[in-house]
């Protein structure tokens, strides 16, 4: 694929204002962005609310694309502290919201209106991240109490805690399920990524990716998988991104769990903490950092002599006026990226190819 | 609040004389004046120590030389020196410094806060916590901590 040989440019389509405090994260609804369903995403903020944004179904002309996003709903008066992150169920019908108030709320989308249908309690203090598994049957949460909780969805929007996983020695920053397998990944202030798998209804840590395995030397803030789920990227306060690969050739014994190994480290690009990383379905890694810049990386097919490596495709300096906390590629056809910042805004970008007739 | 003081008898130093900011000569009236070391020092010198009725300057927790400013890069680093090696107040002092600068400096500024190398028994742990903005955000939603910080900051607004 010569997809990236041509030059690319990042076009700012719109800046969305509405949150009255820093925007911590945003997540696209995975069931949107089709011919019938316009793109939708949710954003979470220190102002204790979640906002739901929708793309106008038919932007009348290209020149008016500047006003093509609207805030459709504000989920408020439920959480009493910062709303840190959220996660859509695979069907896009439910939204799980993690808050510093120690609870996780579940919202149901009923014809465009969002209704809080359940509240998950159990964490001692700040809940920092929440994630649905691929089938929508399991939910994971994590927080400052160092634990990771796994919840099973029951009929009638009930959620039963099936496991409380203690393993991290510090604050757990993020949980994320593998895109196809029921294997859970968590990353932490203790500098590690832990992999959790289910052995006969008994969830346990099957691998720890830490400094001895070429892992990070400071807080790991986020992780993301490539489309097929055989590679993972992590980002850290140590100013690096690391690429990991599932080693399916050395399947471990009975449970069939394939261990992960360090593939390469992307270093020397970021000046401050990297808070967010997201791998697009076509293989472009976007990162957002406390240096206010968004960067894009792609695999460098020329440099295979020393093993796989990644090169910088594009850098957008001063993408926001303050720290960038979240970058997320949209589902659907267009190569859209949304970014969220301490400056209280969300920006919608399009990564466009300058070259014509080069592949697509 | 604290029944037994962590450092019962701190050494109190004389305050540095307050320099009037030297007026730049013949600049345009509306020209933006760069932020310098002295300005940042003036923002934080009068912050009260969490356990003593003295300012951070009087206890030499903060000195002007311990403040690095790069206005072009919008960057400030403060290196403070806790009065004792095991000072459990170090994270509170750091939080006070961060909040004061958050309220005083333009939002473009990036601020790093650390304890002086060798001045604290858990130096790296303290530094890591002080620079984790998620931990700082959570702390600032804790009413008890906010009260404590506000009390320490009060004299710095006079």
UniProtKB/TrEMBL annotation, chain A:
GO terms for biological process: iron-sulfur cluster assembly. Pfam families: WD40. GO terms for cellular component: cytosolic [4Fe-4S] assembly targeting complex. Coiled coil: none annotated. WD repeats lie at residues 16-54, 76-108, 120-161, 165-196, 213-254, 317-353. Essential component of the cytosolic iron-sulfur (Fe/S) protein assembly machinery. Required for the maturation of extramitochondrial Fe/S proteins. PANTHER family: CYTOSOLIC IRON-SULFUR PROTEIN ASSEMBLY PROTEIN CIAO1-RELATED, WD40 PROTEIN CIAO1. This is Probable cytosolic iron-sulfur protein assembly protein CIAO1 homolog.
TrEMBL record, chain B:
Transmembrane segments: none annotated. It holds the Pfam family FeS_assembly_P. Keywords: Chromosome partition. Signal peptide: none annotated. GO terms for biological process: chromosome segregation; protein maturation. Residues 38-111 form the MIP18 family-like domain. InterPro entries: FSCA_dom_sf, MIP18, MIP18-like. The keyword Membrane does not apply. SUPFAM superfamilies: Fe-S cluster assembly (FSCA) domain-like. Gene3D superfamilies: 6.10.250.1280, Fe-S cluster assembly (FSCA) (3.30.300.130). Belongs to the MIP18 family. This is MIP18 family-like domain-containing protein. It comes from Quercus rubra. The lineage of its organism: Eukaryota, Viridiplantae, Streptophyta, Embryophyta, Tracheophyta.
């Amino acid at each position: 694929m010569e997809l990236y040989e041509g030059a690319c440019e990042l076009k700012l389509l719109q800046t969305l204002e509405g949150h009255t405090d820093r925007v911590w994260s945003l997540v696209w609804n995975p069931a949107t962005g089709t011919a019938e369903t316009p793109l939708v995403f949710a954003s979470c903020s220190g102002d204790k609310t979640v906002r739901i944004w929708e793309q106008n179904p038919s932007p009348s002309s290209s020149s008016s694309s500047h006003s093509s996003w609207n805030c459709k709903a504000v989920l408020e008066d439920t959480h009493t502290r910062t709303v840190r992150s959220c996660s859509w169920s695979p069907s896009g019908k439910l939204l799980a919201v993690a808050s510093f108030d120690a609870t996780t709320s579940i919202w149901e989308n009923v014809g465009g209106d969002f209704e809080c249908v359940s509240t998950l309690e159990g964490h001692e203090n700040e809940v920092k991240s929440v994630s649905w598994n691929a089938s929508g049957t399991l939910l994971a949460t994590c927080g400052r109490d160092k634990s990771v909780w796994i919840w099973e969805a029951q009929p009638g929007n009930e959620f039963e805690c099936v496991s409380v996983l203690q393993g991290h020695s510090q604050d757990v920053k993020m949980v994320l399920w593998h895109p196809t397998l029921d294997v859970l990944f968590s990353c932490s202030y203790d500098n590690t990524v832990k992999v959790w798998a289910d052995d006969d209804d008994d969830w346990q840590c099957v691998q720890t990716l830490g400094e001895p395995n070429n892992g990070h030397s400071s807080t790991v803030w986020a992780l993301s998988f490539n489309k097929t789920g055989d590679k993972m990227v992590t980002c850290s306060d140590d100013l690096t991104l690391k690429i990991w690969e599932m080693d399916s050739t050395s399947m471990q014994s009975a449970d069939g769990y394939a261990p992960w190994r360090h593939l390469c480290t992307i270093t020397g690009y970021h000046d401050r903490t990297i808070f967010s990383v997201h791998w697009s379905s076509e293989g472009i890694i976007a990162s957002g950092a406390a240096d206010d810049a968004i960067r894009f990386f792609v695999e460098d097919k020329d440099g295979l002599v020393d093993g796989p490596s990644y090169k910088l495709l594009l850098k957008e300096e001063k993408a926001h006026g303050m720290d960038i906390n979240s970058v997320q590629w949209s589902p659907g056809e267009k190569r859209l990226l949304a970014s969220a910042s301490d400056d209280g805004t969300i920006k919608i970008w399009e990564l466009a190819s300058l070259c014509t007739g080069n592949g697509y | 609040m604290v029944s037994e003081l962590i450092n019962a008898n701190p050494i109190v130093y004389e305050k540095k004389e307050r320099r009037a900011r030297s007026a730049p000569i013949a600049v345009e009236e509306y020209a933006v004046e760069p932020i310098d070391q002295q300005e940042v020092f003036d923002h934080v010198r009068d912050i009260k120590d969490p356990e003593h009725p003295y300012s951070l300057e009087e206890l030499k927790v903060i000195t002007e030389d311990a403040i690095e400013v790069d206005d072009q890069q919008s960057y400030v680093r403060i290196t403070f020196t806790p009065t004792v090696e095991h000072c459990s107040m170090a994270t509170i002092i750091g939080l006070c410094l961060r909040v004061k600068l958050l309220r005083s400096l333009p939002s473009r500024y990036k601020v790093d806060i650390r304890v002086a190398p060798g001045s604290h028994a858990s130096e790296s742990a303290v530094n890591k916590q002080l620079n984790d903005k998620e931990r700082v955000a959570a702390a600032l939603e804790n009413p008890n901590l906010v009260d404590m910080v506000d009390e320490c900051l009060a004299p710095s607004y006079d």
